[in-house]
Amino acid sequence: MFAQSVFNKPKTLAACIALASGVSAAAFSVYPLSANAGSHPNLVIDAADVDAMQGAVKIPGRFRNAFLSTQSSVDKALQQPFVVPVPADAGGGYTHEQHKKNYQQMYNAGVLFQITQEPKYAERVRDMLLAYAELYPTLPLHPKRRPGADNPGKLFWQSLNEAVWLVYTIQAYDLIRPALNESEAEKIEQGALRPVVKFLSVDSPATFNKVHNHGTWLTAGVGMAGYVLDEPEWVEQALLDLDKSGNGGFLRQLNTLFSPDGYYNEGPYYQRYALMPFVTFAKAIENNEPERGIFDYRDGIVMKAIDTTIQLSYNGLFFPLNDAIKSKGIDTSELVLGVTIAHGESANPQLLDIAAQQNQILLTGDGLKVAQALDADQQEPYQFKSIAFRDGKDGDEGALVVMRQQANGDQALVFKPAAQGLGHGHFDKLSWQFYDRGAEIVTDYGAARFLNVEAKNGGRYLPENETWAKQTVAHNTVVVDEISHFNNNLPFANAHHPTLKFFHADDQVKISAAEIDSAYPGVTLTRTLALVNSPENQSSYAIDLFEVTSGKIHQIDLPVHYSGQLVDTNFALRGFTDGISALGKNNGYQHLWLKAAAKPSAGMAQITWLNDNGRFYTQSSLVDGDTQLLFTELGANDPDFNLRSEKSFIARRENSQAHTFVSVLEPHGEYNPAKEFTLEAESGIQGLSHKQVGEIELVAIENKNGSTQLLAFNRSASASSESKNQFEFRGNRYAFSGRAKLFQITN
User: Would you give the DSSP letter of residue 243?
Assistant: First the structure.
């Protein structure tokens, strides 16, 4: 099935749905601000929320605990003088981090003021904002801004961070505005808030109007400031772009950056990051102009996006696609906010399961609802599903496919026939990753970046992000002639995408296929990946068929990046122990040390490694005597030690016009050093075969126990659940209906 949201919240669609239906921006109504607009607070927290929270902090439970924890932290901060430094450092440096701490402290103190009505909290926010009002008008562009970039900041090295400051700070101002006299409010607005809004909007039109996560943060900050400062024109510009044409702005971002299934074009890591301005501004719109029906806009795209962000995780961490920091997961502040707001809108008990794992209660009205529901033990297990998340604003630019099963371990196979993902995308069409029993087994490098570690390129992306992480050989997909997909041409890559041929999921077989003919001139790449389980054999397999066809002779490489220690191969290795060299000169190959090589004889080549989760993994591949296997380790041509030391093996076919790589990944056994036992360290597979009969493809896995698992599937894109399929195998006739079936054969 394709992606479906777990949210079911029937509402009448508001007039603003017109933009998603293709109606011109001129037809989008300009609503007068509601009675709530101009009162304070009126953004994510409103007066009704404050009343409820004031009562809740007196009652034992999760909300009171969160309140006391926040109060303790802010009270400690109030015992120290605050610092509003002149900006000097890039991301991760002292001044950068201090301004982040300041807006977080201001926001928390503002919330505490509303709940407790204690003047000290409002006074701290007031004094800090007055200091910013003195500083901001004196600031030039940031000294560490990137040369030539169109998004510099003043407080921070890029305007993105300035917008984040505004999103938090305008909420803090909103929360303490009733405690200010008119003179104080005038100084803060004229010295800090209005100048920041101007800088992020009319002074930064390229970024403000950009359909990108930077644009989302800018429009959210400016739009929220419009509600607080009673500037409806700012709200309209935030929604529709500076000239209100609809060519940019928040609604265009909702229309363009997300697919109909709520998948964000840049991948899960940036979906998580962009989620905060999307849900924060959406909540502010709902509180001020509920008639817009923002949570129903584009068939509930904000709610779908929250659910999809959760679905794109495994064992609490996001799938590290594109420019991703691998340690980011569902407990990030952005998704905590998203889950909290989504539960407030939908009351979905499955979201409480995620909230319980996040273990963070927000001091908002929606946060109170989450806390009370958890206290009442109303949560239900969140259902992670096998889903094809369509990519592209119209859902026709490929897909990100996630296949899951619980048989023989909690497993997930991620298949990426998705669009490029703009500037944060990697050149890795049709790549895959595999997870089992809480661990990453077939890996993706993610981004080459030490986030906010100033010593490592100021916390920004490292040069190796371009020379390694984005290159095709850094991923688990075919590389032709040691050239990356699209020859690293980003505009061309953004204009082309794979075609998802099919996706199917049942209890035993999850399978998907995709194709692309634009990654290399004159070359067609077709990949089919399946995740299957055999209850009779108590086994599970990830099956990979990668077909490469071309009218010319090429070198074809298929890497597998794996996590663990190489244990065994069923063929002889030639190790380069006297000296090693880089595998190539460009396109990522210059970063791979060639550690060993082999050329197995025709038949089945097996490579086994041991993961830190205590399980063995064997990749069994069909080889014909002409396939080389190259064993590599990352780290060559890396004088600054920016790259992690990771391992891979590469199946190489030279002088090939067409080739199909056939392999099966098999989890097996257990290694327990604490209790000193090892079980089933050797693969249970003794034979592998592949054949095509018309539109039916067969992959047979012969096991040492005498059984055979036979995967049969109809490769035609037009096959349906009604398709009747017949084939012959070992002299016997078989039949199945639909896309695929796993047959259990006893020899």
Answer: T
Q: Identify whether 136 is a catalytic site residue.
A: no
Residue 692 banded pLDDT, cuts 50, 70, 90: very high
Which single residue is written with the structure tokens 């009442």?
376
Tell me if residue 659 is catalytic: no
- For 159, half-sphere exposure in the C-beta direction (CA atoms, 13 angstrom radius) is 30
**Tokens describing residue 287:** 């509180």
| Tokens read off for 701 | 């896995």
Supply φ then ψ for residue 691, to 5 degrees: -155, 160
pLDDT tens for residues 309-326?
Answer: 999 999 999 999 999 999
Q: Whose CA is closest to 128, among 176, 57, 195?
A: 176
Section 133-158 average pLDDT: 93
C-alpha span between 151 and 736 (Å, rounded) = 57
Q: Vertex 186, ends 185 and 188: CA angle to 5°?
A: 65
Catalytic pick among 40, 212, 424, 475: 424
Angle at 351 (CA atoms; ends 349, 354), nearest 5 degrees: 130
- In angstroms, rounded to a whole number, what is the distance separating the alpha carbons of residues 234 and 255? 20
CA angle 249, 338, 4 (to 5 degrees): 85
For the full predicted model, state whether its pTM sits above 0.90: yes
Phi, psi of 699 (to 5 degrees): -125, 120
Task: Quote the pLDDT of residue 38.
Answer: 59
> Which residues make beta-bridge pairs with 699?
690, 711
Tokens linked to 329: 């997961």
Distances, alpha carbon 174 to alpha carbons 41, 165, 166, 532, in Å: 5, 14, 12, 54
For the record, the structure tokens of 224 come out as 């929220």
User: pLDDT tens digits for 222-238?
Assistant: 999 999 999 999 999 99
Let me know: does 503 contact 459? Beta carbons within 8 Å. no
The residue whose two tokens read 């119209």 is 394
In this predicted structure, which of 3-17, 180-194, 328-342 has the lowest mean pLDDT?
Answer: 3-17
Residue in 103, 263, 269, 270 annotated catalytic: 270
285 burial (CB, 10 Å; 0-12 / 13-18 / 19+) is buried
Helix/strand/coil percent split, the chain, to 5: 35, 30, 35
Nearest CA among 358, 362, 359, 356 for reference residue 376? 356
Determine the Cα–Cα distance for residues 690 and 521; give it in Å rounded to an integer: 28
DSSP per-residue string spanning 705-723: TSEEEEEEEE--TT--TT-
Let me know: does 70 contact 108? Beta carbons within 8 Å: yes
| Angle between helices 268-288 and 249-256 in degrees, nearest 10 | 140
Query: What's phi and psi for 719, nearest 5 deg?
Result: -65, 150
pLDDT band, very low/low/confident/very high, at 37 (cuts 50, 70, 90) = very low
User: Three-state SS for 286?
Assistant: helix
User: What Cα–Cα distance (Å) separates residue 256 from each residue in 19, 211, 248, 607?
Assistant: 11, 7, 10, 43
pLDDT at 8 over 80: no
